[in-house]
Design goal:
With about 280 residues, the protein is α/β, with parallel strands linked by helices. The chain has seven helices and 16 strands.
Length: about 280
């Protein structure tokens, strides 16, 4: 299967971001890709929550989701829409991934479970939980010809329990869209992505935000595709947005799992009393 990753520098205008994504979908389709992967918060990246508030709406009213679904149906290309900021039924905001098939149907959604609440040594402070509600469910999706897709978002990558569950569900591919900061990306991005692929014996596809954004933040880039052995098949670097293509061979998964059957060999860790 040939896939495409769209490395983005998303701004604060959802309509401009929607056009960038649909243009990327057309280029991906013309390049022979059967599925496109986009980064976290691809519809709008805005740390000014008061300014962003009027643009965060219910999914059925979201202009990015609507445009992507229509274009997917027009082109027959599937999309793993990394995530959008949307309003859920109770009025809370969530950071939500969407899996859309080649008919424009939403096949699965996943709400980011782990909130990015950190104080970095650089002085950057982030409190995702101040605006967004965490998700509560592990989600996988079946896409025809693509196998089982597991869903995670950005900061989720630091919590191995989620990926142990995705591994036990025998995911073929795990999508980890992101908007990693530059300091955390330089320190941990590559090693964490490779570790998650190795642990789950699955392909990891991590479309990322890159560069200096309209809201003033800077993101790390380096959109990646990792094979089940931990080998980097694609690294889009940290210089600019763009479209990257890679062929993935799903038969590689079974070959790795036969050679190193860590999922089959897993045992529960005994609990011992405190000494």
């Amino acid at each position: 299967m040939k896939i495409a990753l769209f490395q983005m520098c998303s701004g604060i205008d959802p309509h401009a971001n929607a056009k960038a994504i649909t243009d990327a979908m057309k280029a991906a389709s013309e390049g022979g890709a059967q599925m496109l992967f986009t980064p976290e918060m691809c519809g709008m990246l805005d740390r000014d929550r008061a300014r962003a508030a009027g643009k965060i709406v219910r999914p059925e009213d979201d202009p990015v989701l609507s445009a992507v679904r229509a274009t997917a149906a027009e082109l027959g290309i599937a999309v793993a829409l990394g995530s959008l900021a949307v309003e859920r039924e109770d009025g809370r905001w969530v950071n939500r991934a969407f899996v859309i098939d080649g008919e424009g149907t939403v096949r699965a959604t996943y709400d980011k479970i782990h909130m990015f609440d950190v104080e970095l040594a650089t002085g950057e402070s982030w409190r995702e939980s101040a605006a967004y509600a965490p998700g509560e469910s592990v989600v996988t999706a079946e896409i025809e010809g693509f196998g089982k897709l597991g869903l995670a978002i950005c900061y989720d990558i630091r919590f191995p329990g989620l990926f142990e569950e995705l591994g036990q569900r025998k995911c073929d591919v795990i999508a980890i869209p992101a908007a990693f900061t530059k300091p955390t990306g330089a320190a941990h991005w590559h090693v964490l992505q490779r570790a998650r692929a190795i642990e789950a014996s699955a392909f990891v596809i991590a479309a990322a935000q890159v560069g200096k954004h309209e809201d003033g933040r800077e993101t790390y880039g380096h959109s990646l595709v990792i094979d089940p052995w931990g080998e980097v098949l694609l690294d889009m670097g940290a210089d600019e947005p763009g479209l990257g293509f890679v062929e993935i061979d799903l038969s590689r998964i079974e070959a790795v799992r036969r050679q190193l059957p860590s999922l089959a060999n897993r045992r529960d860790i005994p609990k011992s009393a405190d000494q």
